[in-house]
Specification:
The chain contains eleven helices and 21 strands. By secondary structure, it is an alpha/beta fold. The chain folds into two domains: about 290 residues, FAD/NAD(P)-binding domain (3-Layer(bba) Sandwich), CATH 3.50.50.60; about 100 residues, no CATH class.
């Protein structure tokens, strides 16, 4: 076929549907699981949706993305929410992000945080450090670093944080002493608001329903239970674990690079780089009891708790009950048997290790010369939300459409 797409998560489904939208029918999607959606899949647990990959919501910030997705699941099938996310920290329950909501803490804690922010390196013209932990202290101050950012990132990503780079932290806003003081005095949030300030969630289904509909729209252009075993970059041939062989002019891969058992024709240097890529695995766990909170999700940096986040299902999924936790599998308590359902996602979050940018830059550039393109969270090994992934897939599909138009 002309296009072979590996993986039926948001990236692969978007790319395939954009091809179909332009009249292109010479393509095929291969999916390892028995249904589409990837990390955004949903199951029915206790009578209501459970999103197996944890918290996945449709952000409002990319109207072009939402307009495209609403073709498959109409806008009136979604509820629109104003984000209510909170942090439990030192016996305080405050809004997220922490730097904008210190005013909600006990007065004595507000004073300590203000003192810490005032002496942060970025507010004192100190040079920016290179190591992750030093950078966090420099950027946010001692209190936010030690009470929130360091323990939370250790729980969610990796206990050895200095293995991570700082390049991905640049998007964090400076914690301004003036803005923080002003928020404490006026008792309202100042500064930059986080993503998903407003978000959509389906009224009568889980988030996975969207991707099932997109897969259905592809008809027989998608095949399930097809685990990829090998890829030949010289011939653009892919072999599955059941020894079926597929050849294409262009391959779009959205699956983790570590999933390929063999990569024929790829330089050893790039193969070695792939083996250095790191990721974290997450267990999601459902509890049927309702929580006494209006929050949609809550962050828990305390090392004494195994999980790092709770999603309060009954506050965003109409008529449902209960909540689910997210826990790094390295921290899972194997003796815990009080939950009603558990699911492990082997590939949950790509880790932003120090050498990852250079590895991926070389890998993706070389693959492109072979007409193989990495796309999405795993194809690019980037911690993209689903709306970002859809946007990137739409852009890539448009590039191929323009190439086709020029060649005609």
């Amino acid at each position: 076929m002309k296009y072979l797409i590996l993986g039926a998560g948001p990236a692969g489904l978007t790319f395939a549907n954009k091809l179909k939208e332009t009249g292109e029918n010479d393509f095929l999607v291969l999916e390892k699981e028995n249904e589409a959606g990837g990390l955004c899949r949903s199951m029915t647990i206790d009578g209501f949706p459970f999103d197996i990959g944890g918290g996945h919501f449709l952000d409002v910030r990319r109207p072009n993305v939402n307009e495209f997705l609403f073709q498959f699941m109409k806008q009136e099938e979604w509820n629109l929410y104003n984000r209510d996310s909170r942090i439990v920290i030192n016996d305080n329950i405050i809004g997220h992000p922490i730097e904008a909501n210190i005013w909600q803490m006990k007065l004595e804690d507000q004073v300590e945080y203000l003192k810490s922010i005032a002496s942060a390196g970025c507010n004192s013209d100190n040079p920016m450090p290179e190591k992750f932990i030093d950078w966090i202290y420099w950027k946010l101050g001692k209190k936010i670093a030690e009470d929130y950012m360091i323990p939370y990132n250790q729980k969610m990503f990796h206990k050895e944080l200095n293995q991570l780079g700082t390049y991905w932290l640049e998007k964090l806003p400076n914690v301004s002493f003036e803005e923080t003081l002003l928020s404490c005095l006026t008792k309202k949030a100042y500064g930059v608001q986080p993503g998903h300030t407003q978000f959509y969630y389906p009224k009568k289904a889980g988030y996975g329903e969207l991707w099932l509909r997109m897969a259905k729209n592809l008809g027989d252009h998608i095949q399930y239970n097809k685990e990829i075993k090998t890829i030949n970059f010289d011939t653009r041939v892919v072999t599955t674990s059941d020894n079926e062989v597929y050849q294409a002019d262009v391959i779009i891969t959205t699956i983790p690079w570590l999933e390929f058992k063999e990569m024929i024709g790829m330089p050893e240097e790039l193969k070695e780089g792939i083996q250095e890529l790191k990721y974290s695995s997450i267990q999601t766990e459902y509890f049927k009891e309702n929580m006494d909170t209006q929050a949609h999700w809550i962050y828990y940096p305390s090392p004494s708790l195994s999980y790092h986040r709770i999603l309060v299902r009954h506050n965003f999924c109409e008529g449902s009950r209960g909540y689910w936790t997210e826990t790094n599998v390295e921290r899972v308590d194997r003796k815990e048997k009080n939950s009603n359902f558990k699911y492990i996602n082997q590939y949950a979050y790509p880790l932003n290790t120090i050498n990852k940018p250079e590895i991926m830059k070389k890998l993706l550039a070389w693959c492109k010369t072979r007409e193989v393109y990495g796309l999405g969270r795993w194809g690019e090994h980037q911690h993209y939300n689903s709306d970002v992934t859809v946007d990137l897939a739409m852009q890539l599909a448009d590039q191929f459409t323009k190439k086709k138009e020029k060649s005609i």
